[in-house]
Amino acid sequence: MASSVKVTLRKKPNKQGQYPLAVRITKDRRTSYLYTGQFIELKYWDASGRVVRKSHPNAARLNNLLLAKLSEANKKLLDLQTTNTDISSKQIKKEISAPLNKTTFKELSESYLLEIKANGKLSRYASDKVRVNHLQCFAENNYLTFKEIDEAFLRRFMSYLKVTKKVSQRSIVNNLVVIRTLYNRAIKQGIVDRKHYPFGADKIRIKFPETEKVGLTIEEIQNIEELNNLSKQECHVRNVWLFSFYLAGMRVSDVLQIRWNDIYDDRLHYRMNKNDKLLSLKLPNKLLPILQQYVVDKVNDTDFIFPEMKKANMESMQDIFAKTKTATKKFNKYLKSIAQKAKMDKKLTMHIARHSFGNIAGDKIPIQMLQKLYRHSSVTTTINYQANFMHKDADDALEKVINF
């Protein structure tokens, strides 16, 4: 559809009976107005010529102002239509009155963080907020533009993270991923031209370093199961950890939100927090003694099995997130002392329950079944995850070569 930019006098008078001079922007039959801040009486407006009549004492100055605004708007409209044919009349108005290329990294990152927070992605919000703050602390400039975030800038930022902030290579990559996400948004919104994009094969390459996933062995888990010198709190934490492990490494955020009425027909039925999937798993016999320890505190069928979420405001995603985070921190603290009592050298955390299930599963279970147990959306994710624990083929190949 055609677009047009014209000067006009809006027929909405102010309290003094004067009418505003404006630039009218029309796109796809939708109109927006960019006001000049100048008002005149209706008798001074020449509607056919779209100019202020000479009888007005400041006609020449006002007409020059309108001509300048019209020229600026037409030039901006042409530029925008060249790069973005889908832009609306409101966006054109916004760009003319406050050019997008003046939008700072700080402004766009704040709107991005508010968006993911509003969508309930609180874990991502918390981690990405830290990463955004890293860049702003490094730049020491609240008016940093995307054009300034070039290859040289990012290489200095990477060095700053490594030397000054002393973060891991994986954390450096995670910081770059957030910047790339924001840069792509800036390009899509017309804030910066794609030619300035600092990422790519011949620029800044984002490559995740390989990380070693360490899980417990059967013997180590049996040792934890059999410990009898634990405090009451340590016993509770062991129960939560084993509950997670026995159910294929269920995430702690899901474990803490399991209710008594999620268990029926000897199965656990629950909806995952991460991807909203409905799951049903047979209750392993090993879980029954654990459940018996908590049934005495059961208030009703909708009560939580574990106590950590009983006082949470389930209508508040922020409260759920905060209580889950606090509980996980507490669990990991006690798991450290449990590992010491079990005389383990490996680091014991809630997330290690998932790694331990993968380590013991190895290549014994078909990958499609593991995908179902892990609740992965893609089998590729399962293959990549399980590759950390599948060593038999490589071990056998090595033995065949060296055993001569």
Automatic annotation (TrEMBL):
What is the name of the protein in this document?
Site-specific recombinase XerD
Which family is annotated?
Belongs to the 'phage' integrase family.
Residue stretches making up the Tyr recombinase domain: 211-403
GO molecular function: any one? DNA binding
What organism, scientifically named, is this protein from? Kriegella aquimaris
Q: Which PANTHER family match?
A: PHAGE INTEGRASE-RELATED, PROPHAGE INTEGRASE INTD-RELATED
Asked if DNA-binding is a keyword of the record, the answer is yes
InterPro entries, from UniProt? Arm-DNA-bind_5, CB, DNA_brk_join_enz, Integrase-like_cat_sf, Integrase_catalytic, Integrase_recombinase_N, SAM-like_dom, Tyrosine_recombinase_XerCD
* Location of the Core-binding (CB) domain: 103-187
* Superkingdom of source: Bacteria
Q: Which biological process annotations from GO are given for this protein?
A: DNA integration; DNA recombination
Alphabetically sorted, this entry's keywords are: DNA integration, DNA recombination, DNA-binding
